[in-house]
Amino acid sequence: MERILVPVDFSDYSKYALEVAAQIAGEKKMQITVLHMIGISPSRLALNESEEQKEAEYYMDLAKKHFAKFLNEDFLKGVKLELMVQNYKIFSEINAIVREHHIDLVVMGSHGESGLLDSFVGSNTEKVVRTSDIPVLVVKKKISNFKLDSLVFAWNFKEEILNVYKRAKKFADFFSARLYPVYVNRPTLNFKSDKELTSEIDEIQKEINLTEEVVIYSDYSVEKGVLHYAEKIHADAVVIPTHGRRGLAHFFLGSIGEDIANRANIPVITFKTH
Asked: Is the model more confident about 8 or about 21?
């Protein structure tokens, strides 16, 4: 991993993400591309060529002024930065930048814990998470001593989990982090006996040479179980698989992925299933 992309809107949440990215870049000798999307509307672009040029220059100058203030931070000293301003309105277009600039990780800020649609889900961060082909690290508060020593992986026994887990393991190894796959056993129709779980885990271990123990944690819901276990072991982040355009929720056939992302008070890392 060599390059980090940080999309910013110059908010405090963007700065939280940038600070985390700077800590990663400093430790791992990576470069950060800071992206601002100005999103000029099509109606404005319909101006004649001269007016369109003036409009574009105005927004570019405005972005440069914002960048000058936004990037004036001690935590960026010694960090290699590349600044980029694009007239994108659709956040899925970030994938084009990822490919063209060989980005390995996206780091984004997101609102706090209050409300689903007002925070993670429905936000620009969610739009990037849905479409990003590379890992997205979501930061929800200021973290001045960021570390990734322990990661909780929201596990299930669907076949598509295997590829995601392999990529998450590679990501964890890059940070010398320990990955904890956690399956939440609930008192519902989906309840599995110890015998059933042992059998399924044995099959998985044979298929992918799983070296980590799958932790079986009992709770009333998947989201509560994952977050309670993360709290129990003082995890640094939670890893959630996603289903592309269908978003976080559909990985768990419900709103579980959304709930985990919203309620987590630690960073969330997403990997899209392929």
From this structure: 21
